[in-house]
Amino acid sequence: NLYSLNTYLEQLNEPQRAAVLQKDGPMIIIAGAGSGKTRVLTFRIAYLMEQGVDSFNILALTFTNKAAREMKERIGKVVGYSEAKNLWMGTFHSVFARILRAKADKLGYPSNFTIYDTQDSVRLITSIIKEMNLDKDRYKPKQILSRISSFKNSLITVRAYFNNSDLQEADLMASRPKTGDIYKEYVERCFKYGAMDFDDLLLRTNELLARFPDVLAKYQDRFRYILVDEYQDTNHSQYLIVRALADRFQNICVVGDDSQSIYAFRGANIQNILNFQKDYPDVKTFKLEQNYRSTKNIVNAANSVIAKNKTRLDKEVWTANDDGGSIKVMRTISDGEEGRFVAQSIFDNKMNNQLTNEEFAILYRTNAQSRAIEDALRKKDIKYKIYGGISFYQRKEIKDLLSYLRLLINPNDEEALKRVINYPARGIGQTTIDKLTIAANHYKKSIFEVIQTLPLLDVNVNASTKTKLENFANMIQRFQIEAQTKNAFEVADLVVKQTQLVKDLQKDGTPEGVSKVENVQELLNGIKDFITDKIETGEDASLPIFLEDVALATDFDSDKKDETPRVSLMTIHLAKGLEFPYVYIVGLEENLFPSAMSMNTRSELEEERRLFYVALTRAEKQAYLTYAQTRYRWGKLTDGEPSRFLEEIDDQYLEYIAPKLPEPSANRFIDASLFEDAPKKIRFQKPIQKKRKEFLSNKSGDLIPPKGKMKKVSEVSSKTNLFDGEVVVGNIVEHNRFGKGEVIALEGKGPNKKAEIQFATAGKKKLLLQFAKLKVI
Ligand code: ATP
Ligand code: MG
């Protein structure tokens, strides 16, 4: 099919084509955002196949499974779908889970091992902390898990931990001296339960390749061409796997952008890019610098920000695309208004430019920010989809059903067992479960084995509880027997019926209950689809494979069937590699973005800046940046200052726009002399001065502070938090300068609203609420 190949080659620029045609040997493509890295990788695979490389010999590692599917789809168009099917493609986790399954016995694991998701891991750590009688406020399960995760990703085994006094010292200093013991217990329990957590999938792969030269040789021979997308975000454990596998043929192609490295907090290491050049001295390096995604304004604005980072590899990103509109910056009074502005703007853009929901994305730094946005979108009846947050498979009713399925595949899976042993309720209480746990530890058996051999063991439970436990074990065993002859769907259906899981949910009767029943139904449908898909392609359609797919599903993988066009909402971390015509980046405030937790060191701040760079470079046509002067965070109203990233963007690419208020009021701009509480001197930069005049003459909305003077003006602007309706006579309020006082009278409306306040020390004052920055106590 050389014809289509050639036409495809014509859709590449010179350096892209050179990178595709460089068939053998180690190579690295370091390139800016939107410069076609992923496109080159995709086409390179098609090219390799055209050159006679067997599809079975190619391994491509991507950031999401969805990315892998899309690549396969495109490659299929060039080389034919039946060939593309054989490619090994997917995330590190899903590819190596497959390999571990095939070789599990070498590591002492059953081939039906369970994959623990974060929720399972946290539950297990929580119970270990409890059993060890440790203070759970000091030993926070999530923190401990992330510490353990960092050990695993650096290949620090339990033994290595106890040989490393620095690590132990660090945990001692953090008042968590038992961290190593928890780590040890956690690893042993996972092993006993036949479970691997996400990090194990990489750690154990390393173990497998290190301890068994024959296995290593087999996979080295198999994966003669290895390609890695988003290489800048691989961690040490992933780096070592790739290096080991590529060691024989050295046909390794990695692509990445150091400016988009955003997972250092999870152990990703920019150093991997630099190491690459050391590991393979004859590496060929390619640079792609032309951006095809975004307008000139967006590319240049992004460049002007990332230039502030000191640690960067040298490259210049440019584009031949149109200038496009300026990036719109928007200040709002509150997070609620921010949401309304974004919803209104999407609505207007759709109307004016004939667009559909899929063309919009709203990106934020933290998941919590989505709520205000969601409320506003719902009010405008704009359909949206949130990526991240609680995914379908993490919902309680879904996890419960999946736990039954997990348990019948692997009865040693203790987290699954604990979830369902008394759900739906069958009179097996926590005390009994505790007794079983102790017995299991004592007899070195799994809880399930303890239940099965109850009459032979010394476990102090009464006769009626014994019967209940036996009934439970018998039911699971029945499922196991059925599973030998039935397919995954039939088994799941049987489990739903026999456990009365849905009946229990139906009893509930609330709308949530109904939606839970629908979710269970949806899962059954999903299993059916899974079987049909797999049978079509001749792949393994068994229950363990389904459970593995579920465990490793990324946030983009679970929404296959929804066809309604929706606006995408997600954190910036999840948006990596994606593109949308219209992008709204919200919450550009100090302490939120950049995050308060990342302002201590230059390297942390630089990671936040890279994150901003990633966000901005997702936009094709138009980017909007918004910030709110006040925001509810942790249940409190907090004042916000514009993010430094706004100041860092070269002014020429920005345009400050006014919020379109629900009811535009002609009175928003009032004579400055009324502002008795405002600082005396405000100097506006030239272009803003002009804009300011425009605003005033149009009376169309709010004024946005000039860049450069952002902070100064925000001192004024951030005083507009209490504006209407929030202060009533009798309130005790606090003022920055005047201290505490009581509101004794109110007058005026909207922006003219004033409060007369009797301050404890400063006396009686009349203040314009819009600027007085009062806090109600
Ligand atoms: P990111 O850094 O965000 O991962 P990337 O470098 O992987 O981006 P791609 O996603 O491969 O970039 O490409 C960005 C956009 O530019 C895509 O829509 C792609 O189809 C388009 N593109 C890339 N190269 C070309 C080209 N030579 N001609 C036309 N369009 C191109
Ligand atoms: Mg990409």
From TrEMBL:
**What biological-process GO terms show up in the record?**
recombinational repair
E.C. designation(s): 5.6.2.4
Q: Which residues form a coiled coil?
A: none
Positions of ATP binding:
A31, G32, A33, G34, S35, G36, K37, T38
Q: Which residues form the UvrD-like helicase ATP-binding domain?
A: 10-295
Gene Ontology CC annotations of this record: cytosol; DNA helicase complex
> What family name appears in the similarity comment?
Belongs to the helicase family. UvrD subfamily.
Q: What is this protein called?
A: DNA 3'-5' helicase
In terms of InterPro entries, this protein maps to: DExx_box_DNA_helicase_dom_sf (IPR013986), DNA_helicase_UvrD-like_C (IPR014017), DNA_helicase_UvrD/REP (IPR000212), P-loop_NTPase (IPR027417), UvrD-like_ATP-bd (IPR014016)
Q: Where is the UvrD-like helicase C-terminal domain?
A: 296-577
Record's keyword terms, sorted: ATP-binding, DNA-binding, Helicase, Hydrolase, Isomerase, Nucleotide-binding
Q: Which chemical reaction does it catalyze?
A: Couples ATP hydrolysis with the unwinding of duplex DNA by translocating in the 3'-5' direction; ATP + H2O = ADP + phosphate + H(+)
The scientific name of the source species is: Tenacibaculum skagerrakense
User: What's one GO MF term for it?
Assistant: 3'-5' DNA helicase activity
